[in-house]
Design goal:
- 58% of the residues lie in helices and 0% in strands.
- Helix 1 packs across helix 3.
- It has a domain of 38 residues.
- The chain is an all-alpha fold.
- It is elongated.
- It is built from 4 helices and no strands.
Length: 65
Amino acid sequence: MTTALLSLCCIMLGMSLKDHEEITIGRVNNLFNESSRDSIEWNEEARQFDFDRLEYKKHPTVMTG
């Protein structure tokens, strides 16, 4: 990423010059990518069951019953 492109991304995200000096390129990339998803309408939201199922897949011995 060039310096000019980094500056443009920071401006598009509404960052101040102080923010621009203190933030990493990786963080700017993440923020810019996430901001492009703000306008997406999701058809469904995760429920507690969905989160429980993910946790179970990570640590199957932790869950009981």
